[in-house]
Design brief:
The chain contains 13 helices and no strands. The protein is mostly helical. It has one domain. Helix 1 packs antiparallel against helix 2. The chain is globular and about 55 Å long.
Length: 300
């Protein structure tokens, strides 16, 4: 292990970073849904990426040998991912169900790691992956989510895109987080503007007249989730082993489900509770075992 990741007890700064990371990510789904409803999905996605670009612009620079990965990440994470996420929220009312379905990113990442990187997985991670998919499948039988099949399918597609992005990000080790997101913001802004203009011309033309209350939801996603959330994660990974930090992110889906249910007045049904717990247990197994595997790779 590198000296940048020493084993050390968590101090006040670390605990604060964990809280910021989980709260920002956990509340983000509410902010995105509000932005989609108030502004229109593609326009909201474009505005978010434009805000990310403005925030991270001072860190934008050419990174020799990494521009192919940064460009690919910008196309996928900066545009396609947000098209799918915002589209899923636009066609759905049961936001907690989408929050649960959105946790499929971890098992999808594991599948891609096996197919693309040739990683070997053992029974525990296979069990975790199966539990995650079973938990999401249970939601299909929930009367409260009976009309959300399209939204959950699109969310699953977004999770698959996120999984591909996670593989790309593994190739960007050593590149500052703000530089990565500056490129994501730049490419996302360039790609999403024509999409928003063609799909929602009236919404784009209405941007100058948007009230600050509408823009504040999108700003929360750009600043809170992207910059502060990812920044806190980067801060923790520089001070502690991957196997210690990654499992701490499992708090954020719980916050997402609870916050969305409270804000939008959605009932949490017994089926949703069982499905959510099943997904969370499965994702926890995959996440923790994968984090330990990567830690051992770092020690090798």
């Amino acid at each position: 292990m590198s000296e940048a990741q020493p084993h050390q007890p968590f101090g006040a700064a670390d605990i604060f970073a964990v809280i910021v990371m989980n709260v920002m990510w956990g509340l983000n789904l509410v902010a995105v849904k509000m932005g989609v409803d108030l502004v229109q999905p593609m326009t909201a996605a474009w505005l978010r990426q434009a805000m990310v670009l403005l925030i991270c612009l001072p860190a934008l620079r050419i990174v020799p040998g990494r521009m192919r990965e940064l460009t690919g990440l910008g196309l996928l994470s900066g545009s396609l991912f947000y098209i799918l996420v915002n589209w899923s929220l636009a066609v759905s009312d049961n936001v907690p169900a989408l929050a649960i379905a959105g946790q499929l990113g971890a098992p999808f990442s594991l599948i891609l790691a096996v197919l693309v990187l040739g990683e070997r997985i053992h029974k525990y991670r296979l069990i975790g992956m199966a539990l995650a998919f079973i938990g999401v499948a249970l939601l299909v039988f929930d009367p409260a989510a009976i009309n959300e099949e399209l939204g959950m399918a699109i969310t699953a597609g977004a999770s698959a895109v996120w999984a591909v992005c996670s593989l790309i990000q593994r190739r960007l080790k050593g590149v500052p987080v703000l530089t990565i997101y500056a490129w994501i913001g730049l490419i996302g802004t360039l790609c999403l503007f024509p999409v928003a203009w063609l799909a929602e011309p009236q919404a784009v033309r209405a941007i100058p007249d948007l009230p600050m209350s509408s823009l504040s939801w999108i700003l929360f996603s750009a600043l809170g989730s992207t910059v502060l959330g990812q920044g806190a994660m980067s801060f923790l990974l520089q001070r502690h082993p991957v196997s210690t930090v990654v499992p701490l992110t499992l708090v954020n889906p719980v916050i997402s489900v609870a916050a969305a249910a409270w804000w939008f007045g959605t009932n949490i049904t017994p089926v949703m509770i069982v499905g959510g717990i099943t997904v969370l247990v499965g994702v926890a197994i995959v996440t923790i075992r994968t984090a330990h595997a990567r830690e051992h790779e770092g020690l090798a």
